[in-house]
Amino acid sequence: MPITKTGGSGGAEFYGGITGRRATMKKGEKLVIIGRGGTGGPGAMLSRKLMPGVDVTIVSEEERFIVR
Amino acid sequence: MVAGLATADSITNPDQMFANAGINLIKARATHVDTSKKEVELSDGGKIPYDKLILATGASQVVPLIEGRDLDGVFTIRTVPDAEKIMDFLKETEAKKLVFIGAGFISLEMATLLSASRPDYYDIEVVGRRPRPLPFMLDPDMAVKVEEYLVEKGLRMKMGEEVKKILGRDGRVSGVEFATGETADADMVVIGVGARANLELAKEMGLDVGKFGIKVNKFLETSNPDILAAGDCVEKTHFVTKKPVGGQIRGPAVIQGRLAAKRVAGYEIEFPGVLNSTIVKLFDKTIAGTGLTETQAQDEEFETVSAVVNSRSKHGMILGTKPWTIKLVFDKGTQRLIGGQILSDSQAPAKEIDTVSALILGGKTIADLTTFMCAGHPDCSSEPSLEPIAIAAEQALQKLKK
Predict the structure, then answer these.
(1) What's the CA gap between B153 and B291, in Å, rounded?
(2) CA dihedral over A17, A21, A22, A28, signed as positive or negative
(3) Inter-axis angle of helices B250-264 and A40-50, to 10 degrees?
(4) Which pLDDT score is estimated for B15?
(5) Burial of B297 by CB count in 10 Å (0-12 exposed, 13-18 middle, 19+ buried)?
(6) Beta-carbon count within 10 A of B230 CB
(7) What is this structure's pTM?
(8) How many CB atoms lie under 10 A from the CB of residue B380?
(9) Which of B134, B169, B306, B385 is the S-S candidate for B174 at Cβ 3.0 to 4.6 Å?
(10) Confidence band (pLDDT; 50, 70, 90) for B13?
(11) How far A17 CA lies from chain B's nearest CA (Å)?
(12) For the segment B95-145, what is each residue's pLDDT rounded down to a tens digit?
């Protein structure tokens, strides 16, 4: 499948009704992030902040992962 | 951490931070992703559904297929457990003769920190395949100064050399053999020759994968529209060359993680590509680089013009003034800035590399930089007349006439 420029589940409601953004995750939907290092950790924290109604889960096998 | 400057807990993401933020943390390995059911299967047998998935599977240390790499006392360094194993080994064995394979920033930073942690104790040799250290950050004219400094500080720098075999006795490392046949004793060997994207899961999921990592578009979306990927596991695009590159560097990793979050939240922000900016502290010198070195630029068939300028950390009349040097590399055709390197005897000026990065990202030219103005203070910067970015641009301008 070719990489799409827009991707995503186009057509869904704007999250939080904020304009100027493309339609994507809705309240109650599930975001899963695999990895909690310098990418997964900050990504999860910002996801929670930007989308308080979305269920955010990190999957990581490492006991400790370096902060970056 | 290995040099005793930080503890494991101080450099790791605490689980409580995620719990406090209301983020579920599952400690298991993702073994399989069923993209049709949109389900992640876990090593503990569990399954979790997703609407959007972000892969941040990172990278692993490259271990060259050198004979003897499995001997006791041979290490790689990337994770906290790696550092703990090295610390334990050094404590238990009182290892004294250390050989570092690789002359990149991770290898050199660890070698210099260990050296500084027990002055006059360790006998450290650094072996690099390239003629000069830090080959992806610095041109030879800048790198030779670093090499001379490291030798002056007591490190043995064996550059342009290759370790052919790691030698052992009774299952433990005892030395290394070079391609020349020459040998050197070693109580411990650390291999630091770079990292490679972890792609096992992405490949198993059928995602498009390139030479350097998972293929993504400018919004970090993979070939599956409900799956994004970010950080060390992703193939990047170089901002200057527009070609695919690797790069397991902290800046892009963090920014891509947050950009992926913004994307699933609906923001339309493109990732600009990487400059692979890096900074490293070796003893008392701080070294930074961004964009292309002149060597890399010429390999990419740019016709270059460059300038090297010496400056100082404070005004001349202030006590404690330290020298620093900047090299700027321009594309002669477009006259745009495409790279920069800094060697500094104090830490603050080295962060001017971020200014250089911003100027590259802004597409600034030699002419633009001749009018670049800096904030100045006697105790915080060189005299305005010695601000080196504008001076380097002026020198490049003169070279264009030749």
Answers:
(1) 29
(2) negative
(3) 30
(4) 79
(5) buried
(6) 32
(7) 0.90
(8) 12
(9) B169
(10) low
(11) 10
(12) 999 999 999 998 999 999 999 999 999 999 999 999 999 999 999 999 999
What's the confidence (pLDDT) of residue A63?
A: 67
Mean pLDDT of chain B: 94
The Cα B382–Cα B65 span in angstroms is: 48
Say which of A42, A50, A58 has its CB closest to residue B25.
Answer: A58
Distance in angstroms (rounded) separating the CA atoms of residues B376 and B391 = 15
- Going from the C-alpha of B306 to that of each of A39, B258, B299, the distances in angstroms are 35, 35, 15
Among B220, B199, B209, B37, which residue's Cα sits nearest to residue A7? B220
Provide mean pLDDT across the span B179-183: 95
Residues of A in contact with B208 (CB under 8 A): 1, 3
Q: What ipTM was assigned to the predicted interfaces of this complex?
A: 0.90
| Burial of B327 from C-beta contacts in 10 A (0-12 / 13-18 / 19+) | buried
Place of tokens 């433990």: B172
> How distant, in Å, are the alpha carbons of B153, B221, B233, B252 from that of B257?
39, 12, 11, 8
Has residue A33 got a pLDDT over 90? Answer: yes
Phi and psi, residue B360, nearest 5°: -65, -50
Exposed/middle/buried for B92, CB within 10 Å: 0-12, 13-18, 19+?
exposed
- Residue reference for tokens 């950390």: B313
Give yes or no for residue B281 having a pLDDT over 50.
Answer: yes
Helices B352-361 and B388-401 pack at an angle, to 10 degrees, of 50
| Phi/psi of residue B359, nearest 5 degrees | -70, -35
Contact B208 A3 (CB under 8 A): yes
Q: Enter the tokens of residue B188.
A: 């411990």
B-interface mutation test, from A22, A27, A34, most B Cβ less than 10 A away: A34
Distance CA B179, CA B303 (A): 35
Residue B176: strand pairing partners? B166, B184
| A39 → closest Cβ in B25, B48, B230 | B230
Residue in A closest to B44 by C-alpha:
A61
